[in-house]
Amino acid sequence: MDLRKISDAVSVSPQIAPADVAALKAEGIRSIICNRPDGEGADQPSFEEIEAAAEVAGLEVRYIPITAGMVTDADAAEFGAALRELPGPILAYCRTGTRSATLWSLAQAKEKPIADILAATKAAGYDMNGVARRIANGGKTPTDTGDASYDIVIVGAGAAGISVAASLQTRTTDLSIAIIDPADIHYYQPGWTMVGGGIFEAQDTAKTMGSLIPRGVHWIKSAVAAFEPKNNAVVLDGCRVVKYTRLVVCPGLKLDWGSVEGLEDTLGRNGVTSNYRYDLAPYTWQLVQEMKEGRALFTQPPMPIKCAGAPQKALYLSADAWHRRAVLKDIDIQFMNAGGVLFGVKDYVPALESYIKKYNADVNFFHNLVAVDGPAKRATFAVKEPDAEPREVTVDFDMMHVCPPQTAPDFIRVSPLADAAGWVDVEQSTLRHKTYDNIWALGDVMNAPNAKTAAAARKQAPVVAENIAADIDGRSATAQYDGYGSCPLTVERGKIVLAEFGYGGVLLPSFPKFLVDGTKPTRAAWFLKEKLLPPIYWKAMLRGKEWMARPEKLKVAAQ
Q1: 3-class state of residue 130 by DSSP
Q2: Based on the structure, what is the number of domains in the chain?
Q3: Dihedral angle of Cα 435, 437, 438, 439, to the nearest 10 degrees
Q4: Do 276 and 393 reside in the same domain of the chain?
Q5: CA 554 to CA 129: how far, in whole Å?
Q6: Which residue from 309, 554, 312 is spatially nearest to 431, judged by alpha carbons?
Q7: What phi and psi, each to the nearest 5 degrees, are found at residue 3?
Q8: Does the active-site annotation cover 403?
Q9: Which of 94, 250, 307, 403 is catalytic?
Q10: How many CA atoms lie within 13 A of 553 on its CB side?
Q11: Which of its termini does the chain have fewer beta carbons within 10 Å around, N or C?
């Protein structure tokens, strides 16, 4: 007996035997649905035998036989009615459990988000992406055959998506390209640290999406529900289907605020803020200006996160402001880091440690934020130090800057494109999908072991564009991504430690050392961050002008 729970009310399983019914009752099952027609297999017990055993055990039964591969809309409706009418928990079974899982997915289509349905069935061992269109269509077979079709479809119109569209246009002028994204506003997210430090205004980091998508690229203003890579199709919310010849996936990642108990209820008040949200970054600066004494917490969750230095940047700019106002001596700064190092590339650590010392900040490693009580101003951390028993600590605060846990978006994690951890599975040099050779990914959503930064996307977009152009011409990949990422660590107002590195923590400086020594705080790096990078982002990167980002030729290993 192989029970696979897909919800609190329903489990599915392969074929059961009459002798299993008593054990099912002991497991708490109160009803059984048979989805396997009698006589399908020589060694298969009949429904009548299962029914008889269920009657002895006091369980209710329902017979909804489904021919393999032929689940109709009426079948799904009948199954849904059975779920409502029968006492639960319910076990549904067929030969392998797949038909039962399919019926449950279609029956739940109007009640649950498609990502939740795909996740629940995937966790039970059943891949429902093959019926994603029907789930997206409320559980019914779509009748619309007027699907749109493009040479290139790009999922996501963030820094990566718009940049790769623009870079493709510089290489190929006769392609039909579409970008799928439901957002009206595009944000320059690297600027939010500066907003939280009182240097930029929030409105200067936002522009309308329509003003940025390259001319000639079709904008599909919708969310993605699922992927059908075997059919070269993307299923949108509402069950519209977009077909592609080649697909680029770059929707960014998900800020998982809800995974920290109480956090969503207190964001933007009670002294709890985050530079990871456009509407909250100004609140960070407000709190910094108002604070004269007390305890300030700065949190960092487990990796991966976008811009691994951002939690520290908030700390440094806040501490620098307090230092300039001569109140720093009265403020207890605590950096609560779920990891075990200050920064992942050791060459930059000495400079950062000197500022930790300057600001008299305490660094608490292996402390992961798990709960917040905003009104009481208390934060709870799970502490998992090496060679020590796990424990929890609760810390009072007057101000807390939170960096939220981060994951791949739900519709990515449950898709056939994802690896075991939920990120899009790519070859780290060419950024081509490991399984589907007409799919590429870039930006925060893919699983290459690089820093998730806008600077990384700036280097990745030309690589993807170059390799797609080569593929169109019938050639192998020609460009490679070396893992480049950049993290301008704002250690004080007017100085930055410009961390630039690639795969394995190899330093990849963009400038000669006599101009910018990235391992030390410099005013030149601050000028770059404050004055040059924003216009480079808006006027070059998003327009396909690959300034200092031309793709590197792919190195072929010796045979």
Answers
A1: helix
A2: 3
A3: 50
A4: yes
A5: 34
A6: 554
A7: -75, 130
A8: no
A9: 307
A10: 3
A11: C
Give the 3-state secondary structure of residue 339.
Answer: coil
225 plus 351 within the same structural domain? no
CA 236 to mean position of chain CA atoms: 18
Rounded to whole angstroms, how far apart are CA atoms 316 and 373? 25
- Strand, helix or coil for residue 465: helix
Q: Is residue 83 part of a domain?
A: yes
Tokens of 316: 């440094």
Catalytically annotated residue among 34, 250, 403, 487: 487
Strand order in the sheet with 391-396: 367-373, 378-383, 391-396
Nearest one of 555, 559, 558 to 480, comparing CA atoms: 555
Q: Residue 448 belongs to a domain with what CATH number?
A: 3.50.50.60
Tally of CA atoms within 13 A in the half-sphere of 502 that contains its CB: 14
Which residues, including other chains, have CB under 8 Å from residue 162's CB and lie 6 or more apart? 179, 186, 212, 213, 214, 542
Parent domain of 70 = 4-136
Q: What is the CA radius of gyration of the chain?
A: 27
Q: Are 220 and 148 contacting, i.e. CB atoms less than 8 angstroms apart?
A: yes
The residue among 136, 161, 190 that closes a domain is 136
The question of whether 94 is a catalytic residue gets the answer: no
pLDDT tens digits, one per residue of 53-111: 999 999 999 999 998 778 888 899 999 999 999 998 999 999 999 999 999 999 999 98
Q: Which residues contact 128 (CB under 8 A, 6 or more apart)?
A: 101, 102, 105, 117, 118, 121, 122, 135
- CATH number, domain at 47? 3.90.190.10
Asked if residue 505 and residue 377 are part of one domain, the reply reads: no
Element (H, E) at 318: helix 310-324
> pTM for the complete prediction?
0.84
Q: What is the pLDDT of residues 169-207, one digit of tens each?
A: 999 878 999 999 999 999 999 999 999 999 999 999 999
